[in-house]
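Hello again, I could really use a second opinion on something today. I've been staring at a protein lately and its backbone has me curious. Can you walk me through what the tokens say about the fold? Take your time with it, there's no hurry, and the full record follows here:
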Amino acid sequence: MAKTAQAVPRITVAYGNEPLLVDRVVRTTVTQLRGSEADLQISTISANGEDSAAMLREASSPNLFGDTTVVVVTGIDQATDDIDAAVREFAREKPDHAWLILTHPGGVKGKNLLDELKKAGAEQVLCTQLKGRELRAFLAKDVASYKRVMTDDALSALIDAVGQDLRLLVGAISQLVADIEHDPIGREEVSEYFAGITGVTGFAVADAVWERRPADALRSLRWAMRDSGDLSVPMVMAMAAGLRSIVRVAGAGPGASEVEVAREAGVPPWKVKTLRHQWSAWSGDQRRLAAAAVALSDADGAAKGGVGEGTSLDPEQKMLALERLVLLTSSREAS
């Protein structure tokens, strides 16, 4: 049974650098409030925005219509003095018609504010990157949410195939439980489903794309699809994993050591050099990199059968969509 609005903490802090977990904290809190607050209004503001403090104060002030409000403040570690003061005011006054959700990526910035909020009764939810047993336990719980079962060996095969990007792993589980009907889902089914990835072919395609080697990328793609059948979904996932890793490594800055970057980006230290090289191929062409992210989203829909209601693509159409994605993304020429 969903919590009533009164049972939801007036202030919730999603603390950590795992985007999927942060998103789930925000989504779960909003869902709980919507269960009993039909007129709930939602506002999202940035902690370093110029007008954020005024927006927070306005949202938490009483209104003529009696609407309830939830305000999501992102990146509270970068809070301006004004938003810091506004958040503290909210914590002291706790308006009975408003709730506050804050996101903080971790670290020492903004610690004084977090300590103050904790004293005021804020609930802090840990959203750090999962590894080892914690990651496996989370994935097993995610499988169970579909009322399905996956063996320990299958979970190992899944992590080997997809990597440790939590959003991609959760997406892979969603696809597996949709396509495989029997329980438990075993290592053999996972290995067969991600055959091209497990054999490193998918990541070979991804590396060629992000290194902007279109001929090599297309050759590897056609070889993998010829030998292993329809690998559209895992191919797109491998490319998406590569893009996310590149962006994370780029965000760490050139002065950080490979060990530091690996820890921050959630990749093996040996992979950092490759990812930095791939970023160098895109660092002066970030509009195309953004366009590549959009193209990946479109290709994901095609790989799963089509994005329109009632659409269904056959293997040849999926292959054409993948080839177009690979060529347009990896090419240095304008599309």
Summary: The radius of gyration is 22 Å. The chain has 16 helices and five strands. The chain has two domains: 5-126, 132-330.
